[in-house]
Specification:
Elements: H1 4-15, H2 22-37, H3 42-113
Length: 114
């Protein structure tokens, strides 16, 4: 025996999405009318569930592919960030080393003039 409350909940959850796919939109509108009229047949239910599966499996695949792309790009950015941080550390050490030499040079030149 089908769980009508759960089915109605699913239709509400699906209906909350902004659906642009015409076939899914028709299936949603059709099942909402049938639910409102209390005339949901097993064939209607099966057709709706099939449409939901088809739409959301495709949607899920697309979202997962997008997530993989974003993760890949974040990894690249993190690598660039890591490399730039290392470069910055080298530049700071170079500045400290050259400043130390220049500081010593100034002291030596100052002593020579005295």
């Amino acid at each position: 025996m089908p769980d009508n409350g759960r089915f109605a909940g699913l239709t509400l959850r699906v209906g909350a999405f902004h659906i642009t796919d015409r076939a899914m939109k028709r299936a949603q509108e059709s099942i909402e009318r049938a639910l409102a009229a209390g005339t949901v047949e097993e064939a209607d239910r099966a057709a709706y569930l099939s449409a939901v599966r088809r739409y959301f499996e495709g949607f899920s695949k697309e979202a997962r592919a997008h997530l993989r792309d974003v993760d890949r790009r974040l990894e690249e950015i993190n690598q660039v960030h890591f490399n730039l941080t290392a470069e910055r550390g080298v530049a700071v050490k170079r500045i400290e080393a050259t400043d130390a030499v220049l500081h010593d040079l100034e002291k030596i030149e100052g002593q020579a003039q005295s």
